[in-house]
Amino acid sequence: RALAMKLIREIAALEQDAMPELLIYYNPWPDHFAHFTGPFADEILAPSGELNRLDYWLGMLGRIYRDAGVIERTLFAMAGDHGLAPVFHMLNPE
Q1: Distance from C-alpha of 13 to C-alpha of 84, rounded to nearest angstrom
Q2: Measuring CA to CA, which residue among 94, 62, 64 is closest to residue 75?
Q3: DSSP state, residue 49
């Protein structure tokens, strides 16, 4: 058991020096504010709005990966839900 814990600590320490294999960046704020103000409100679209903030942080992530020299072997993906479009049908996954 002591050896296993030592190995786990050594592996965990290596992670601090490497880029993650999977990074999930979750930003709820554009959706959160849009539910209260609408998708075309200043809180969303203005230069100081949430979409601009999201763009800033995605740019920062890209720069970090570029500076680390791994951007060429990195795949970025973005996913979203229905946004503010009305949901007309509910689906039970069972």
Answers
A1: 42
A2: 62
A3: S
Distance CA 71, CA 23 (A): 14
Q: What is the pLDDT of residues 4-62, one digit of tens each?
A: 677 767 766 766 666 667 777 788 888 888 878 887 888 888 888 888 988 988 888 88
DSSP state of 72: G
Residue type, 85: A
The DSSP H or E segment spanning 44 is helix 42-45
**Among positive and negative, which fits the CA dihedral 23, 29, 35, 41?**
negative
Encoded amino acid at 8, one letter: I
**Residue in the structure block whose two tokens are 């009305």:** 86
Which candidate, 35, 85, 79, 27, places its Cα nearest to that of 56? Answer: 27
pTM comes to 0.59
